[in-house]
Every structure is written in structure tokens, then in C-alpha cells.
Design a protein that fits this description.
This protein is an alpha+beta fold. It contains 5 helices and 5 strands; from the N terminus they run αβαββααββα. A hairpin with a 5-residue loop joins strand 4 and strand 5. The relative contact order is 0.22.
């Protein structure tokens, strides 16, 4: 961990933010995709909603995987745009009770922009991104 990340974690710990649950700063109004979406439809969804990735869910709302802009770049360049999307099924995720510290470490170590938040039955409840974490910390008015 570099000095700036350590400083941020120290501040979070000092103000007891490190134990704050994801449910206190996750986004619950999120865009999700279905496994049968085409590459073209997914690109359009990303463009319209200004997102860089989304959870892929089944008809019940349970997490099947995630897809990112990076995934779409490869697929758009190598497949027909009418082809069904391929998505990652080995996914990092958080639960509503997962702590800020755990999410921060996961996002940092795995170099992720965001992760889905799920319940014990794999239903997607929201997402949490790096900027969500930063906004939560900065909203707590932690002074230097």
C-alpha cells in the first residue's frame, strides 16, 4: 500500500469509518444486464447510462456475473455485434454488512472500479465503486 492509501486508511480507522458497512454508501439505483443481451445492446446501455460496467443478472435478479467496457472492447472487435455477451462469472462482491475497510482493500488489490453488493441468496442489491468510497469518506469531513 502506498503512503496516500495508508493515510486514507489511517484516517478512516481514526474516525471509525473503516467499520462502516457497505449498505451506508452503496448505490441502490444501478443498471443491470441480462445474460441474453447482445454486444450492441450492452454498448448502447453503457453509452446511454454513462457506465463502465454492470452486473449480469438472471430473471430473478440473482448475480450471474459482471461485464466491463474492457470485456466489450474485446468482444466488439472479435465478434458480431448481434452476438450474445460473454461475461465474467468469477466475480468479487460485497455483502451489505461488508466493511468499508474490506471493500477498500478489495478494490485496491484487485484494481477494480466497482463491485456488486449481493445478499446471501445472490440477489443484487446495489453496487459500490471507488468514487462511492471516496465520496463517503470525504462526506465525513475528515480534516488533515
Amino acid at each position: 500500500m502506498i503512503a496516500s492509501q495508508k493515510k486514507m486508511m489511517d484516517k478512516a480507522q481514526q474516525f471509525n469509518l473503516a467499520s462502516s458497512p457497505v449498505s451506508s454508501f452503496m448505490v441502490t439505483n444501478f443498471i443491470s444486464l441480462r445474460e441474453n443481451y447482445s454486444i450492441r445492446h450492452t454498448i448502447e446501455t453503457f453509452r446511454i447510462h454513462h457506465i463502465s460496467g454492470a452486473p449480469v443478472i438472471d430473471e430473478k435478479g440473482q448475480l450471474l456475473g459482471i461485464i466491463s467496457e474492457y470485456d466489450l472492447l474485446i468482444q466488439a472487435a472479435s465478434k458480431k455485434l448481434s452476438s450474445t455477451i460473454d461475461f465474467k462469472v468469477d466475480v468479487k462482491y460485497a455483502y451489505p454488512e461488508t466493511s468499508l475497510k474490506e471493500v477498500l482493500i478489495m478494490l485496491y488489490k484487485e484494481r477494480l472500479k466497482w463491485i456488486p453488493v449481493i445478499d446471501k441468496n445472490q440477489y443484487v442489491l446495489g453496487t459500490v465503486s471507488r468514487i462511492d468510497v471516496l465520496n463517503f469518506i470525504s462526506a465525513q469531513k475528515i480534516d488533515d
